[in-house]
Specification:
This protein is an alpha+beta fold. Helices cover about 20% and strands about 30% of the residues. The chain contains 3 helices and 9 strands, in the order E-E-E-E-E-E-H-E-H-E-H-E. The strands form 2 sheets. A 5-stranded mixed β-sheet has the order 6-5-9-7-8, with helices on both faces. Strands 1-2-3-4 form a 4-stranded antiparallel β-sheet, with helices on one face. Strand 3 and strand 4 form a beta hairpin. The radius of gyration is 13 Å and the shape is globular. It starts with a strand and ends with a strand.
Length: about 130
């Protein structure tokens, strides 16, 4: 069953409206599976578990044109940790990272987006 994340909208911004059932609804569009949510676009993300957050899976977040300050990583139902090498690469790219459950990441992303923060959410889908 999908859980509602927010009822508000931010004009021209990607808002996570609901999560669960193996996917998300972002600004009226349904995505099956995990996603990367930038303020202006949402991308499919191949990661299915916390152990998969390694290597190049976050390269879109570190791209020079991404221009973000904070990355929220929703690591499924229980949360978890992100690979140290990947954390170090994010730090070198001047991107702060916070890990939490997917539910908390959805809510936090929407709040920070409303505050005009430069934030991206990397969200692992939950049932």
């Amino acid at each position: 069953p999908a859980m509602e994340a927010v009822r508000v909208t931010h004009e021209g911004r990607q808002v996570v409206q609901s999560y669960g059932g193996g996917g998300f609804v972002v600004s009226g569009t349904r995505y099956g599976g995990s996603i990367l949510v930038f303020p202006e676009r949402t991308l499919d993300w191949s990661v299915t578990s916390a152990s998969g957050v390694v290597g190049s899976v976050l390269d879109p977040v570190m791209a020079p044109d991404a221009a973000i300050d904070l990355l929220l990583v929703g690591l499924g139902s229980a949360g978890g940790v992100v690979d140290k090498e990947l954390r170090d690469r994010l730090k070198a790219a001047r991107v702060a990272i916070e890990t939490m459950s997917t539910a908390a990441a959805c809510r936090t992303y929407n709040v920070l987006l409303g505050e005009q923060r430069r934030v991206v959410a990397a969200l692992i889908a939950v049932d």
